[in-house]
Amino acid sequence: MDQVRVAGVGLTHFGAHPDRTGRDLFAEAAAGAMEEADVPRGEIEELLYGNFMGEVTEAQGHQGPLMAEAAGLRVPATRYESACASAGVAVREAVKRVRSGEADVLLVGGAERMHNVGTAGATEGLAMAADELYEVRAGVTFPGAYALMARAYVERYGGTREDLAHVAVKNHANALENEYAQFRREVTVEEALEAPTIAEPLGLFDACPITDGAAALVLVSGEYAEANGVDAPVAVTGSGQGGDSLALQDRAAIERAPATADAAEEAYAEAGVGPGDVDFAEVHDCFTIAEVLAIEELGFYAAGEGIGAARDGETTRDGDRPVNLSGGLKAKGHPVGATGASQVVEATRLLRGDHPNSDAVPDDAVGVTHNAGGTVASAVVHVLEVAE
Amino acid sequence: MTREYRDDGYDDLLEAIEAGEGFYLACENGHGYLPPRRVCPDCGSTALEETPLAGTGEVITRTVVHVPPPRFADDAPYATLVAEFGPVRVTGIVLDAESAPEVGDAVRPVVGTSATREDRLLAFEPV
After folding, report:
1. Residue B124 has pLDDT above 70, yes or no
2. Minimum Cα–Cα distance from B40: chain A residue
3. What is the DSSP string of A39-107?
C-alpha cells in the first residue's frame, strides 16, 4: 500500500496575517511543497484545493484557478468545500486519484484568510457550517454547537471542565517548538479555567483561535517516485470519509461523532491496521471536547473514557499515544480550509524525522490524521506510514 | 429583519407553532424530522405525514452563548437548547439566558423575536 507518496510539504506561519491575501498565503505554502518535492513544475497535473469561507472574507469564489495561478501553474484546479474538513476531502480526492492510476503528480492543499473580517465576521462565517434554518437561526455559533455536544457528553458520561483544560494545556505545550504555530506559549489549567466564557461550558481556552494560513503537499505515485528518483519516504496508506446529519438535532446522539468512526474504519482497513497499531495522531481539536470525541471515535478509547486521556498523560508528548504533537488546531491554529492538509504535513514531518517533536514518534510509526467538518457531519481520516 | 421570500416548510412550522399547532414529519417507521423534507434520512421512506408535536419537550442539552454572531449582537448572552419531543428533536433559543431552562426541564416551543434584527425565532419557554 505504498502507491501514494508525499513528495513535498509546505506551510505558511499560522497566525494573524490580516493584510495577506488568500492567494499570497497559498502561493507561499505551494512554493514550499513544490521546492521540497523537486519535481518539474510541468509534471504537476492538477490542483485540488480546500477553502471554506472565501466568499465571506475575500468576496472571492472560483478559487481553484486563482490558486493554481498563484502557485505558478496553469492546470485544471478545483476547490473543495466541506467546512473545516475542506482540505481533508481535497487530500482524500488526490489520494484516490493517484491510487487509481489517473494521476501521478498532484498539488493539494488549502488556505483560509479570517482575521481581516474580525471576530464577529469570522463567527458569522464559521456558523455557516451549521444548519442555517434550524441551528443558526436559533443562535447556534460554532463554539455554541460544540458546547451543546460537550454538555450532552458530560450529561451522559461525566467529566469536568478541568479534564477539558488538560487538552488545551497539552496542545499548547506541544506547539512550543513548532515554528509554524500561532501560539507558542504554555498555558496552565488554572489559566484555562479562568478564561472568559465563550459558550457555556466552553471558555476561551477550550477554543482554537481564528487563524490565517495555508498548507500544501505534492503527492506522487510510488511508481513515479521510483522512476524519477523522487525522495518521498512517507506513504498515505489509508483514506476514509464519513458523513452524518448536518444539524445536531437530527443525530441519534449529540455526544457522539460516528462519522469519524466510519472514516477511521475505512482508512484502517485500507492500511491494514487497527486502532491499537496507531502510534500518534493529529486530530481535529477545534474545541477541547472535539479532541475527546475524536480519540474515542478513532477507537483509541471507549465511549466516555477519552475525557481523562490528556489529564492522565496518555496523549501527551511522553504518553503512550501522543495526540496533536503539532499543537493541534488549539495551539498551532485553524485556518479552516487549510487544516486538513496541514495535519498531513505535520504527520509527514513527524514520520520523516524533521519535525521538532519527531523524537516523540517511534521508528516505523503509524500516524493518523483526523479532519472534521462542522460538528463532524463530515470526517476524513488518513493513515500515514514510512514507505517500505 | 424581514426576509423577502418565505422558506416554505420552515415558515409553515413557525406559523403552526404560533397557532399552538406545532407539527413534525413522521414516517411509518417512527422516525421524526422537521420540515422541509421529502424523504426520511433514516429509512428512505417518502410517506412523511404531518403529525402534531407534543405540547412539551425535555431539554437534552444547552449552552449559553456569550460571543454572538452579528445577527444576535444585541441579544447575547442568550441560551440555545435542544429539546426532545418524542421522536423529534428541536433546537430553540431562549433570549433571557438567566431564566433559561436546565437539562431535564420541560419546555414548549414558541415564536420569539430577536432584539438585534427583529428576526422571527424558533424559541422555547419554560413550562
Report:
1. yes
2. A250
3. --GGG--EEEEE-SSHHHHHS---HHHHHHHHTT--S-EEEE-BTBTHHHHHHHHHHHHHHTTS-SEEE
